[in-house]
Amino acid sequence: MAQDLLKGKKGIIFGALNDMSIAWKVAEQAVAHGAEIVLTNAPIAMRMGTINELAAKCNNCPVIPADATSEEDIQKLFEGSMEHFGGKIDFVLHSIGMSPNVRKGRHYTDLNYKFLQTTLDVSAISLHKTLATAKKLDALNDWGSVVALTYIAAQRTFPDYGDMADAKSLLESITRSFGYHYGVANKVRVNTISQSPTITTAGSGVKGFDEFIAYSESMSPLGNADALACADYCITMFSDLTRYVTMQNLFHDGGFSNTGVSMDVISKFAPEEK
Question: Which of 35, 85, 143, 186 is least buried, going by the fewest C-beta atoms within 10 A?
Answer without folding.
Answer: 143
